[in-house]
């Protein structure tokens, strides 16, 4: 069994609590059904992250059921929840944490409109100000990959590295989002479904007006630096 | 009045409780309105199944209101709930239990998007990984049949026998799903509406990318055997 | 002030309670927003009906706030709720009760999909079995009429007289439904939105398969006479 | 610190309470997600208005968290909530209050269907009676403007001055609505999303029938002067 410093134990407890609770936001915003979807959060100051168990009811997601993993996605033995299997997407989350040190949270859902764009392998164009605020431009498509090796994680990292967007739509699969912490990644998951839906509906009856690049840049800059009660900072 | 062994009585009580409770999932996921839709579950170890009464409010579905039937769809006299009529789809459920011994649960709804495909008699193509996971390929269409003889049950059995899909869309009517137990059939009902909606929306703005057959096979195999806390086994 | 026999007073109290409570079903099924929509119920054995007040919150619809009217739509002075104005659609409800003695309940909403068909003045074709069950064929369009005289009520009565459907879509306006009592009319309002939505969605990607007239007739006949715990009888 | 007369203090307290509570209606009707959207209300008898703080959870919107501003959008120091930043749309609200003295409430959301029309810069045509009632004609488009100067407020005022509609769809951005008080502006926000959705859906399968101008005028006049429990008066 592992022993961590008291500071790390406190950090683990907080991330367990956050990750457990944030799954409720996926339900509240209708992004997941049955046992689908998963949220993870990095433990600050340690090479660890916390993730949802695989195939477990949303009504049963208490902090002590969350699973602690190292950055290779291995469950830490002897810790609460370790008797269960972690989310089947754990390898993809781990890959992101290993390769993107600035990322503190990862979310995956099969939310309807985001998957609809993903199935056509079509990026979501940036035609509404809320999307410029949040993603700073289009939401990109990641490669088609199936579970079984590092290909999903690699596709996420390659697509999002150097990109303003915190969301990627993996082809035929669905959205993965990243953030500075788990809550920020959940917000990106909520927002990507919202813009996927709104732009889809707008395009059903014609072409949305493009927005000038300078306006998109100005909106993104302001939102990342001014909006809210304290600067969020770029990811 | 029938008398069953204590083991069978325990099994009946458990299936009554499960079937009553699972109707709540149909409401939660918006698959049913008013008194529509029905869930049934086979009683393990006996030629019996439990089904919802006909035309009764979802707020009034306690275990003791569920109806116990034999595999010909006859209500077992003298048992709780037997004073009511069983679901008008009871004959179709019974036909499935008689002809598919591996089936432990059957669900029928008129969920919106699944009915929309059914009305066009168009199978749902497998273009998203969640659908490959759950159904292993397209969701097929069953024949047009109306209530009054065995034609609905026969259409379900003929369409699903030897098919990976646990869901069939009966033409102009709606989805029937099967599972190893009632919960598994309810999950299939939830998932078939979800994929019906997502693929519909994706196709509104263009053609989804096809997925390679090998990828579909690999996803189905993994999901049926690895996902979750214990193997589910193929149906 | 009017005095009624004890039997009529009991009937009035029951209809007040039913009408107040049934407005909650309009909210539950998403058929109304803000203060829109209205349910009324005829008082059996009297030339009276009970209807919702105008422009009042759904959270404030207690039985004593419902308004008692005669069949010309006049509020009965001195009865509970009489200090308020009745629904602005009261004249249309009254017209229906005067001219269709078999009708015991009337409902009006602006539910989304039903209004969408109404705005195109296009009847909903009967291409799903649930619609054959409930409406026995297409849901018809009523004439364009605006509030201010008897034209809405007359349009409802002329369209529905001799028609199987308990729902009419008034052009550019929305659905009115009738029933043997207020609950039956509310059910029709719930079902007409459901079939309006499902058939709309089906037609977005192609033409639904027509159903044979004989099948529609057989489904309607069975549902009206056999479904549920007791025969419903044709309206 | 400012001191106000007892009458103004009472008015401030009431507007704080109304504005805090009315945000719940935005959630109830699905017009906002995460921390998006904002309601403000003018304080009767003073050059002040109350608005939501920026980027704060909807679960955390108590009256004492609302922020009191002058009509230039400056936070009044020393008042409850003044330690937080007001909504990032405060300048636009302030501009409206300065230039439209008859306006007592302003609401901004990114509600899905209204934004979809805004992204195409297409006014919503008046083809349903509910829209004639509420808006007296089409819902207009305002200019493309980004946050940073007075351009959003100016666009709202220029578009709505002399217009029957209490809603404007700012291009590529979303709806702003006005009203005689905060509740009236919230009602307009709820109704504009409803008509945006219904007309969108109607047009998906063909062209809605136009309504005669005289009918639109008659409906608007009646609804503004007769509907409800007391005359509303034109804004």
TrEMBL record, chains A, B, C, D:
Keyword Zinc (UniProt): yes
SUPFAM superfamilies reported for this sequence: AraD/HMP-PK domain-like (SSF53639)
GO CC annotation, single: cytosol
Pfam families: Aldolase_II (PF00596)
Enzyme Commission designation: 5.1.3.4
Obligatory cofactor(s): Zn(2+)
GO molecular function terms listed in the Swiss-Prot or TrEMBL record: aldehyde-lyase activity; L-ribulose-phosphate 4-epimerase activity; metal ion binding
Gene3D superfamilies: Class II aldolase/adducin N-terminal domain
Example of a GO biological process term: pentose catabolic process
Keywords: Metal-binding, Zinc
Catalysed conversion reaction: L-ribulose 5-phosphate = D-xylulose 5-phosphate
Signal peptide (UniProt feature, chain positions): none
Domain of life: Bacteria
InterPro entries: Aldolase_class_II_sugar_metab, Aldolase_II/adducin_N, Aldolase_II/adducin_N_sf
Top EC class for this record: isomerase
Family from the record: Belongs to the aldolase class II family. AraD/FucA subfamily.
NCBIfam families, A to Z: PRK06557.1 (NF005123)
Protein name, as recorded: L-ribulose-5-phosphate 4-epimerase
